[in-house]
Amino acid sequence: MFSFLKFIIIASKLTLSKYSFLRILQILETKKINLSGNILDLGGNKNPRNISRFFAGNYFIEYADKFPQDDETISLDLEEQNTLSKKYQCICLMNILEHIKNYRNVINLSSDSLYDEGLLIGTVPFIFKIHNSPNDYFRFTKQLLVEELEDREFKEIKVINLGYGPFTNFYSSISDYFMQIMPLLNIFLLVPCIIFDKILYIFYKNFSNYYPLGYFFTAKKKN
After folding, report:
1. The sheet that has 214-221: what strands, in order across it?
2. Are 93 and 148 in contact (CB under 8 A)?
3. Fewer CB atoms inside 10 A, N or C side of the chain?
4. Is the CB of residue 152 less than 8 Å from the CB of residue 107?
5. Is the preceding peptide bond at 134 cis, omega within 30 degrees of 0?
6. Taking the domains of the chain in order of start, what are their residue ranges?
7. What pLDDT is stored for residue 2 in this prediction?
8. CB of 10 within 8 A of CB of 191?
9. % the chain with pLDDT above 70
10. What mean pLDDT comes out for the span 41-63?
11. What is the pLDDT of residues 10-48, one digit of tens each?
């Protein structure tokens, strides 16, 4: 009960800051990971709302994007670029794979740019609205994520379902409409939706596996 109340408090604060429910779940998973060394956020930027800013630990992060917003961000096209000038202890793919038509190039680039035993961290949406940035091509299943990472010889692959079930997915869909005009209302909608999904889970243990809002994944590069 305490952990659930703690989650509601954190989720409420982030909701009032106009984060989507999927982004809130991604942030909470990110906060669990302690990093060190040099990190590259592919497709990310220095926006303070960027998910990669929520990692714990002492690390130095760089950003790479096709449309850099400052001189420090590396300019590269993830559809085509297949090499980087240096290697990293960790590479992040936070909500980027669905926007890249040649997404296998991004996975290959990540693998080639990691040190041995380096960590790949990413997140993707599944039951989520179309969001062009500038395009939106794919939705990935857990099975596909695992197989793609295995094909690139990653190990210790872990894919976490984000979300609770159909009620919170419904909440995720309608919350955007209230976010701009009445974010407080979203808090009162979120709690009962989570409770309804938890009730369903009592009767259908694997229920949430069939209704993921998104996925959060980690993997290590093999020696």
Report:
1. 74-75, 56-65, 34-42, 88-94, 114-125, 214-221, 154-162
2. no
3. N
4. yes
5. yes
6. 22-164+210-221
7. 58
8. no
9. 99
10. 92
11. 988 898 888 999 999 999 999 999 999 999 999 998 888
Residue tagged 């096709």 (tokens): 66
Q: According to CATH, what is the number of the domain 22-164+210-221?
A: 3.40.50.150
Tell me if 161 sits within 8 A of 205, measured CB to CB: no
Tens-digit pLDDT profile for residues 144-180:
999 999 999 899 999 999 999 999 999 999 998 888 7
Spatial neighbors of 80 by CB under 8 A, at least 6 apart, are 102, 105
**Cα(92)–Cα(122) distance, integer angstroms:** 6
Does this model's pTM top 0.90? My answer is yes
CA–CA dist 223, 117 (Å, integer): 6
